[in-house]
């Protein structure tokens, strides 16, 4: 039996995640009181369900505090349990609530939207580290859908899932990063007009960067650091580790090194690669509504 748990901040995209899983033929339960999770799983196992998705969030009230213990108990009886925690910066959440004119579930008389968001962050802090965190601040809805599909399509196995994520410092450090490496000191292909519109996945940019000895040394140093410390994260019972590689715009150097690292680790770990710069450019081009 595979169970995907979904949680996170209001306005961070939980409804999109739920819809993706429903479209993927999961049996979906939305807004389940956290206290009922063990009974639900026991019932669905006994009736033969194989793929189940459950959304649990702050609307559960005080019972959400028991979720870490419930998840730990479920891991011992379920073949494949995955946890997605969605979050976003305050400014992104405020903009989404303003655009949709929806009421925050913790809003009350005399409580501002900013205060409600902070109260929700505080209430969910104990469960944010339970699984795979996704910062949706700069994500187009279609990008979030694709990332959720990647997450559920990764082959299930024991051990840790390693994610390499490129980003641009000028847009801020991703909230979901566990390790952050700054590669802005490397020569920037942006200043070559021929390479400027390309990315670190294009052959011309790869050729440019591979000719620079410092790029190879930086990439190898990051590889050694991750390889040396990865066993410690595994011993800490971490299911996911996000390694963020940042350059100025998140288009050339960070993309190249994230892809380079992913190739080196793919034979020994479950690996996912994401490029936030692509998501950011999609948002800049497309005025479609953000995740809700």
TrEMBL record:
Domain RapZ-like N-terminal: from-to ranges: 1-152
Ranges where the RapZ C-terminal domain occurs: 161-277
The keyword Translocase belongs to this UniProt entry's keyword annotation: no
Binding site for ATP: 8-15
Keyword Nucleotide-binding: yes
Pfam families documented for this protein: PapZ_C, RapZ-like_N
UniProt xrefs under InterPro entries: P-loop_NTPase, RapZ-like, RapZ-like_N, RapZ_C
GO MF annotation terms: ATP binding; GTP binding
Keyword list, A-Z: ATP-binding, GTP-binding, Nucleotide-binding
Binding site for GTP: 57-60
UniProt cross-references to HAMAP family, sorted A to Z: RapZ_like (MF_00636)
This protein's name: UPF0042 nucleotide-binding protein
């Amino acid at each position: 039996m595979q169970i995907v748990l979904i949680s996170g901040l209001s306005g961070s995209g939980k409804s999109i995640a739920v819809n993706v899983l429903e479209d993927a033929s999961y049996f979906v339960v939305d807004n389940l009181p956290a206290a009922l999770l063990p009974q639900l799983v026991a019932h669905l196992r006994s009736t033969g369900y194989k793929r189940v998705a459950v959304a649990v969030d702050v609307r559960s009230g005080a019972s959400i505090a028991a979720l870490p213990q419930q998840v730990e108990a479920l891991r011992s009886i379920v073949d494949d349990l995955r946890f997605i925690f969605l979050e976003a910066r305050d400014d992104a959440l405020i903009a989404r609530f303003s655009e949709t004119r929806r009421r925050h579930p913790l809003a009350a008389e005399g409580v501002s939207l900013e205060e409600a968001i902070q109260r929700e962050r505080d209430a969910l802090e104990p469960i944010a580290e339970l699984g795979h965190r996704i910062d949706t601040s700069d994500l187009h809805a279609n990008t979030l859908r694709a990332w959720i599909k990647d997450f559920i399509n990764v082959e299930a196995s024991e051990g840790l899932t390693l994610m390499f994520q490129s980003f641009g410092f000028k847009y801020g450090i991703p909230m979901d990063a566990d390790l952050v490496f700054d590669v802005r000191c490397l020569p920037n292909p942006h200043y070559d007009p021929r390479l400027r519109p390309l990315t670190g996945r294009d052959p011309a940019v790869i050729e440019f960067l591979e000719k620079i000895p410092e790029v190879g040394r930086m990439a190898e140093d990051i590889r050694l650091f991750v390889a040396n410390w990865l066993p410690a994260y595994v011993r800490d019972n971490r299911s996911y580790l996000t390694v963020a590689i940042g350059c100025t715009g998140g288009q050339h150097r960070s993309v190249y090194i994230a892809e380079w690292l992913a190739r080196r680790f793919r034979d020994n770990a479950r690996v996912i690669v994401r490029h936030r710069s692509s998501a950011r450019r999609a948002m800049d081009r497309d005025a479609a509504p953000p995740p809700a």
